[in-house]
Predict the 3D structure of the following.
Amino acid sequence: MKTLYFKLRAIGVTWLLRLLPRNQPLVFSGRGSSLELCRQLALLGYTRALIVSDAFLAGSGLLDDMLGTLAQAGVKCTVFDGIEPDPNFEQVAAGEAVLTRESCEVVIGIGGGSVLDAAKLIALLHNNPGDLAFYDGIQKAKNPGLPLFAVPTTAGTGSETTPASVITDSATHRKVAVADGKLVPHYVALDPDLTRTLPPRITAATGMDALTHAVESYLSRASTPVTRDMAATATRLIFENLPRAYQNGEDMDARQAMLTASFYAGVAFGRTSVGYAHAIAHQLGRVCGTPHGEANAMVLPQVLEAYGAPVRPALAELARSSGLAAATVSDDAAAATLVQRITELRREMGMSLEPTGLAADAVPGIVKAAIRETGDLYPVPRYLEPDELGGIVSKLVAAA
Ligand SMILES: [Fe+2]
């Protein structure tokens, strides 16, 4: 009965995701494209910008070239670097207060997923005042936000193109998902120079997050020929370039390809949503503090195997389009090759497969929450039974 309820609900979510009105950002791509974005902003006539970032990036000197270019072009910038990982309502409100005080006309988010999620909300909140909790849900804001420029400094979350932000309500400790087409940034720069210094561990984790977006989007019931094309391209780019970017952070071609892949995967899953790997990963983040990308990598192969026969033709398509399997190989064998390659990739990058501090008695709660999250949000290709999910999570306990 519950499965039927979730299936009906997922049909509703599927249509909402497909129909959510939004524009895609104008993308500047390549080395130096973040500076091109700054010059473009000035050409558009803006003279006051709020830079949203975090204290580490602001202190690292990574923003200096962009700040210099903006100043040279006559744009007065105020840096708000108060965004922390898993940002909360207060940080967004504080950023919006700085924006208002300084009469900024545009928001430029420079950072990873947390920074970009917060920058998107600051731009939206400025033109839609009130309690952020009101915007929990789908398409709640009335007015478009301020012009929004996004510059990712990691290649993984896809936040620079998705119509969603996740924000923590500190009063309830609940993570609130704001989904609104008006959150999609207007301009994006995919500049590999800004990911050059990303440490290997974060390169691996964020890259596996992008891979999980791409594969789960490809399998989603909400996928379309266009989203499948983008997800398949992202998957191929990640298999080809993530090991290179991990081995040599200075490989700018690989870094650029990873930014492109992350963006494509973001466009795809922004329409289709994700699946059980994310549902479990979010619980591992909540219960054990496991970094999001690492948590996805811990469970993606097991989730794909658990889906079983219904997804093998789709996994085989991904294997073939990624050059992992020949056209003559059977679907079952090609699908197995894809899952095997994901397993190898996480091993080659020395990724941890053990969520720290996961206790056996936490498993039922994790399974329950993952089922609820999937039922609410993810049009998965097959609904897994509680004991199937329990088996996947229990193995992580054994590993821990
Ligand atoms: Fe993700």
